[in-house]
Amino acid sequence: MEITPSLFYFLLVLTKPLHGYQIMQEVEKASAAVLTMGAGTCYGLIAKCLDDKLIRLKEEKQRKKIYEITPKGREILQGELDRMTHQLRLANKYLGEKE
Amino acid sequence: MILIQKYDVLLEVDSFIQWIESMAAKGWQIKYINEDSFLVHFKKTEPQILKYSLYIQAYAKFSNDEFIDVAKLQGWELVSRKSNLFLFKSSLEDPTPLETDINELENKQVDMIKNSQSNLLYFVALSLFWLFYKSFDFASITYLALGLYSIGIYGRRKCVRLTNTVKKVQFSKWIRYYNFTLIIFFSLFIAFNAYRSTDSKLVNYSPEVIPFNFSILPEIDNTIAFKYESKQSLFSLSPVQTTLIQYTDIHRYNRIIYITQKKIIWDVKDIDQYLKSTQIFFTTNNNVLNEWKNEQDWIIYKNESDSEYLSVFKRINTIYTLHTLNFNVEEHLELMKGLGD
User: Fold this and answer.
1) Are A10 and A67 in contact (CB under 8 A)?
2) Which positions in chain B touch A50 (Cβ < 8 Å)?
3) Does residue A47 belong to the interface with chain B, where contact is any CB pair within 8 Å?
4) Coil, strand, or helix at residue A31?
5) Which of A57, B42, B177, B225 stands the most exposed, by the fewest C-beta atoms within 10 Å?
6) CA B291 → CA B201, B294, B300, distances in Å?
7) Rounded CA gap, B54 and B158, in Å?
8) How far does the CA of residue A51 sit from the closest CA of chain B (Å)?
9) Is A6 an 8 Å CB contact of chain B?
10) Could you tell me the pTM of the whole model?
11) In Å, what is the CA distance from B266 to each residue of B83, B125, B188, B197?
């Protein structure tokens, strides 16, 4: 499964329950404003991740649907974090050897 | 205002958006979005600098209402929606794009193009309907026009399928010229045909030679039709082949095609006053002689020709067979009377 930057931050912020607009705001915060998520991308990801069971609908409050990450979603997120950490370590090691 | 579609909504999204933005700046805002139509409807407004965005919804669990509400928070107002296509507008100078994942946008465009081809094939099938009849009446030629136009769109989108990306379509410009040419040609043809059809005259036929209790329909170009008093479905014979075609409700069709030596077209509304049931029969000059059976149900046609010439349909259960006899009318009527006793 391809983990795009949008998907990565999307799963990251859903480690706490949020509704759609909150997801977009939190993604911008978590990425230090590098990634601004459009409404279409956000709701597309919600639909896709619901299909893939990476997130689930936790509850519906005042006509707003609140989502949270599932164990499968956490596994994907952790896998991506491990991959990025490993990649960073390899890069630092390579740069240290080069010097 | 209605204009001919300048750009393919799916293949040329950027050009389409630029076009409708320039129209909005001139005081014309688009009313509806439709990926397969060749017409675009605009409404008159005050000139405005607007940004438009086309969003393709690709998932079953997509929350449409919530998406529209949240898009509004980002400055996007929904203009029109058709199936999974959403068209938004914004008066902000630099609104956050609805789709910020570019790869996802392109994938969805390609998927939608692939799915739309099945709709276009429906219109291509309609053009085959024309080939079957080889008729130049209004309805048939419209089907042909839609079919050929759809072939053009299908061809362009097939290029996308082969290359799997919207950026590499090489032939779209030429196929756009093909579609424009078709639209102009068929518009002129339809206009000419509509003008020509107003010249037809209805002539009352003398009821003297009509036996039994047949109702007389108006004669056009020396061809007479007789309405048969029954609740059965009507049948017609094509001059191309002898296949029977069943029409269950004549009023679904705007035109009835009479297939004789000379093709004649009637408007249903012109003869509607004579109809009590939904039955009209067609005939051809392909003679099919079958054995007479002593049935009571039948109908007579007088065909247009140099000699007196009658076509007779006999009904056996729900099948009508054509008996075409080269008798003169009086002799034939004697025979008919004898069989009807």
Assistant:
1) no
2) 61
3) yes
4) coil
5) B177
6) 37, 10, 16
7) 21
8) 7
9) yes
10) 0.56
11) 38, 24, 21, 9
Contact state of B63 with A20 under an 8 Å Cβ cutoff: yes
**Rounded to the nearest 10 degrees, how much is the dihedral formed by the CA atoms of B158, B161, B166, B168?**
-80
| Residue A63 DSSP SS3 | coil
One digit per residue, the tens of pLDDT, for chain A of length 99 reads 778 889 999 999 999 999 999 999 999 999 998 889 899 999 989 998 998 999 999 988 877 899 999 999 999 999 999 999 999 999 999 998 765
Residue B245 in tokens: 């075609």
Interface contact B63, partner A, CB < 8 A: yes
Picking from A37, A51, A65, the nearest residue to B100 by CB comes out as: A37
The nearest CA of chain B is from the CA of A79 a distance in Å of 22
Question: What is the interface pTM, i.e. ipTM, of the complex?
Answer: 0.84
Residue B137, Cα to own-chain centre: how many angstroms? Answer: 12
Confidence of residue B307 (pLDDT cuts 50, 70, 90): very low
Query: Running DSSP on this structure, what letter comes out for residue B233?
Result: P
CB contact under 8 Å between B73 and A39, yes or no, is yes
Chain position carrying tokens 């938004």 = B88
Interface check for B58 against chain A (CB to CB < 8 A): the answer is yes
> What pLDDT is stored for residue B89 in this prediction?
94
The answer to whether the CB atoms of A50 and B101 lie below 8 A apart is no
Distance between CA atoms of A6 and A35, rounded to whole angstroms? 8
CB A35 within 8 A of CB A27: yes
Mean pLDDT for B38-53 is: 88
Burial of residue B302 (CB within 10 Å: 0-12, 13-18, 19+) is buried
B98 and A38 within 8 Å at the Cβ level: the answer is yes
Tokens 């983990």 sit at which residue? A3
Q: Locate tokens 């002799």: which residue?
A: B331
Residue A20, Cβ density class (10 Å: 0-12 exposed, 13-18 middle, ≥19 buried): buried
> Exposure pattern of B206-224 as b/e (b: 16+ CB <10 Å)?
eeeebeeebbebbbbeebb
**How many Cα atoms are found within 13 Å in the side-chain-facing hemisphere of B163?**
16
